[in-house]
Amino acid sequence: MTDDSGPERRSLAELLSKNGVLTSPWLREAVEAVPRELFLHPGVFLDEGGFWRPVTATGTDAAEWLKIAYSYDTLTTQLDGHLTADQTADPVRGVPTSSSTTPATVISMIESLGLESDHRVLEIGTGTGYSSALMCHFLGADNVSTVEVDPEVAERADIALETLGYSAWTAAGDGLLGHPRRAPYDRVIATCAVRRIPHTWVRQTKPGGVILSTVGSWPYGTGLAKVTVDDNGTAEGQIIGRSSFMQARSQAVVPVAGDLSARTAYADSERETKVPPTLLDDWVPAFLAQLAAPGAHLVRAQSDGTPLLYLFDPDRESFAEFLAHDGGWTVRQGGPVPLWDRIEEALVAWEAAGQPEIDSIRLRITQASHHYWIEGAPDLNWEHRLD
Fold first, then answer.
1. Shortest CA distance to 110 belongs to which of 212, 40, 34, 206?
2. CA 302/CA 298 separation, integer angstroms
3. How far is CA 320 from CA 70, 313, 323, in A?
4. pLDDT number for residue 252
């Protein structure tokens, strides 16, 4: 490894420290030692207003490439589950499916783990391998296991790690199943969002160990959960903040398609809403909505320039349609589950409780259920049975 990017690494570490993100001396040493650009091969896609412009190291001025590599932004490295920047020369449309997450998020999550030098860590979602390398620098490669669902992404990360001499346990597979071969772990960290923390991770974590994962499936409505495992196979903790990651691929939401007017043609009820559904544009209400009505998806559409708003739960064949008028909103609901009734009840209770932030939410995970609650707010209490 050359020191070509040494100044950029030191500048990034200084910026992270100045912003209060980077506090551990060992982690600062890792940021200053690990070249992020090595983990961006073969290139990245830059967002240009609906199109993604491919940029590669070989096709870019060296100084410009380092400027991109050490930006404070998330850098998209794959579109639509297969396309990389070296495979196209022109801007393209697509959906990001792999990335190098913004350094501030990567570092803050690693800081939240409370790592000690003898810990064994399982990472779910290898991605580029940059965060794996930071942990390898401190823990030693033999103590880091990382699982990536995309074999090609896993291979690129493994090559980059090996280039630095980090022979971590890199595996291609479904991270929701963990990595039992190297269990038990002191820490589990997920760099993707999951609908709920799998009990598989709990079983593979030592008593006293910590699991850190983004939970939820709505964009801009997910929370970072930190739970500690006890001797009985139960994990308990809280949502420690807002968080946004790509969804685990096996849990990715399939967009509701087709004629939405046909899907909402037959309503069982129609009434005025007690709170506006536009509350769901805010982070905490969106997170609470997922607790109140698991499986519901918020869908926005347009008809002749008029914005439309829906909730759908395809598995339960239920919907809610919202109609705006001068005095407020009307909701039409159909199917066996009154989606908006459940969500609205939670939003009314949240407002009555003083609109507590997302870090007031606690959770307990057992083999049979996930339990979420807010202390002192009895109406903000949900148990999701898994049987």
1. 212
2. 14
3. 44, 9, 10
4. 77
pLDDT of residue 1: 44
Given strand 223-229, what is the order of strands in its sheet? Answer: 169-172, 144-148, 121-124, 185-194, 205-215, 223-229, 235-242, 361-365, 369-374, 381-385
Instruction: Indicate the SS3 state at residue 56.
Output: strand
Residue 303 main-chain phi, psi, to 5 deg: -135, 115
Give the pairing of strands 361-365 and 369-374: antiparallel
Dump pLDDT digits (tens) for 305-318.
Answer: 778 899 999 889 99
Q: How far apart are CA 32 and CA 26, in angstroms?
A: 10
User: Interhelix angle for 6-18 vs 62-69, to 10°?
Assistant: 30
Q: Where does 255-352 sit in CATH, by number?
A: 3.30.160
- Residues annotated as catalytic are 99
CB contact at 8 A, 132 and 168: yes
Q: How many CB atoms lie within 10 A of CB 271?
A: 12
Give the span between the Cα atoms of 271 and 277, in whole angstroms.
Answer: 13
Count, in order, helices (H) and strands (E) of the chain.
10, 19
Distance of alpha carbon 306 from alpha carbon 312, whole angstroms: 19
- Look at residues 45, 139, 26 and name the one whose alpha carbon lies nearest to residue 100: 45
Residue with tokens 């805010």: 282
Name the H helices within 325-370.
339-352
pLDDT less than 50: residues of the chain: 1-2
The pLDDT of residue 3 is 62
Cα gap 320→174, rounded to integer Å: 33
- In this structure, the number of other CB atoms found within 10 A of the CB of residue 81 comes to 15
Q: Are 172 and 148 in contact (CB under 8 A)?
A: yes
Total length of the chain: 387
The domain ranges of the chain are 255-352
**CA distance linking residue 42 with residue 58, whole number of Å:** 9
Amino acid occupying residue 171? A
